[in-house]
């Protein structure tokens, strides 16, 4: 579908193809995914059409070797019409990429290569009932035994749970060490909780995942079982940029809907788009979207280039794009008037979907702490 490195024109061609796919295959089902709280199986089939699952994986694992910007563009265009579908793809990547990067050849052959066909769903299991941002506070344990590992503990708010084939689990392997482990849905001792009832992204299943003496073979430890914290910290820099893409897509979709509605709706003998206050709101919304896009794409370049600023830029992008998504979708509802409060119009769903982007993968308050630390550290270095 694409080369690893593309010029600007190629990125736009890639975007155009995704936009057509999203408009034809995903947007028509988006409202039903939400109203029926149904997993977006149709979107999963659409992903296969363009090989989107393989986009985030290296060629030696059967993937396309797409850079971070191409991944962000994909999530942006999906999020523009359906946040649930964008999240589904993003979490498949989040669950499987650590295996691809750090897993043994045996584990990659077992998990990653079959997943490149686009039929595999995955989850990443970090958060626990006692908290999410403090990774060293987690209580789930993995104990080494002669024939493998035994996991015990409980994970909370796990995306794609009840539908995933593979669960990538962060667990304590020692008093001060963490490891990552690949657990299959059929492994003995894996227990799935009831689906949560949520404000938004309702088509994406969220549930507890509990491990009760869950036994897995030794090769399912992902890389060094004492380096899980480092693996996840590196992964979070990348996934926060991905969430920035999802949030930016939601904001762009809401802006598009607001422009369409205000161009068609008439009051006092002229369309709403002729009113100065409406134009001022649209201008502010468009500015937030474009500013977010510039910051996000800068973060993507920093990640791909291995820049020391990548972690802070990813946090900035996640913070700004998600806050902007909340602001833009709220204004889009306002510009729709009473219609915006009805489920008949997409902006109502978009506003509910936008909220989670300020919360998951590190609440925005945590992003501000990461950014501030980076700023102070850099000032101290000078």
From TrEMBL:
Domain Acyl-CoA oxidase/dehydrogenase middle, chain residue ranges per copy: 124-214
InterPro entries, sorted: Acyl-CoA_DH_CS, Acyl-CoA_Oxase/DH_mid-dom, Acyl-CoA_Oxase/DH_mid-dom_sf, AcylCo_DH-like_C, AcylCo_DH/oxidase_C, AcylCoA_DH/ox_N, AcylCoA_DH/ox_N_sf, AcylCoA_DH/oxidase_NM_dom_sf
One Gene Ontology MF term: oxidoreductase activity
Cofactor(s) this protein cannot do without: FAD
Domain Acyl-CoA dehydrogenase/oxidase C-terminal: 226-375
UniProt domain Acyl-CoA dehydrogenase/oxidase N-terminal: residue ranges: 9-119
Domain of life the protein comes from: Bacteria
Listed EC numbers: 1.-.-.-
Stored Pfam families: Acyl-CoA_dh_1, Acyl-CoA_dh_M, Acyl-CoA_dh_N
Keywords assigned: FAD, Flavoprotein, Oxidoreductase
Family: Belongs to the acyl-CoA dehydrogenase family.
This protein's name: Acyl-CoA dehydrogenase family protein
Organism annotation: Bosea eneae
């Amino acid at each position: 579908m694409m080369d690893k490195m593309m010029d600007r024109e190629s990125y736009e061609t890639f975007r155009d193809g995704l936009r057509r796919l999203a408009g034809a295959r995903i947007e028509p089902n988006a409202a039903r995914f939400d109203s029926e709280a149904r997993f977006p199986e149709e979107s999963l089939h659409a992903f296969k059409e363009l090989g989107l699952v393989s986009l985030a994986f290296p060629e030696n694992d059967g993937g396309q070797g797409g850079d971070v910007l191409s991944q962000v563009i994909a999530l942006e265009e999906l999020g523009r019409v359906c946040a649930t579908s964008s999240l589904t793809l993003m979490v498949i990547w989040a669950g499987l990429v650590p295996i691809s990067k750090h897993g043994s050849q045996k584990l990659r052959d077992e998990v990653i290569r079959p997943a490149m066909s686009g039929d595999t769903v995955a989850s990443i299991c970090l958060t626990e009932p006692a908290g999410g941002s403090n990774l060293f506070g987690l209580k789930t344990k993995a104990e080494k035994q002669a024939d493998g590992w035994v996991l015990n503990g409980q994970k909370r708010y796990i995306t794609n749970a009840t539908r995933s084939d593979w669960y990538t689990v962060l667990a304590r392997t020692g008093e001060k060490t963490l490891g990552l482990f690949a657990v299959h849905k059929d492994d003995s001792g894996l227990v799935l909780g009831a689906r949560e009832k949520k404000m938004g992204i309702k088509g994406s299943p969220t549930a507890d995942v509990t491990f009760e003496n869950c036994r897995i073979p030794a090769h399912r430890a992902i890389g060094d079982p004492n380096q899980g914290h480092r693996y996840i910290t590196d992964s979070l820099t990348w996934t926060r940029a991905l969430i920035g893409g999802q949030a930016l897509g939601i904001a762009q979709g809401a802006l598009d809907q607001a422009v369409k509605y205000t161009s068609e709706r008439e009051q006092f003998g002229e369309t709403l788009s002729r009113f100065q206050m409406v134009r001022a709101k649209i201008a502010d919304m468009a500015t937030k979207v474009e500013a977010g896009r510039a910051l996000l794409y800068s973060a993507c370049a920093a990640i791909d280039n291995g820049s020391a600023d990548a972690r802070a830029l990813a946090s900035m992008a996640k913070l700004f794009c998600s806050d902007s998504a909340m602001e833009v979708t709220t204004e889009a509802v306002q510009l729709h008037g009473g219609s915006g409060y009805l489920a008949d119009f997409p902006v109502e769903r978009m506003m509910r979907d936008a909220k989670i982007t300020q919360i998951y993968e590190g609440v925005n308050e945590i992003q501000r702490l990461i950014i501030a630390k980076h700023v102070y550290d850099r000032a101290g270095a000078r």
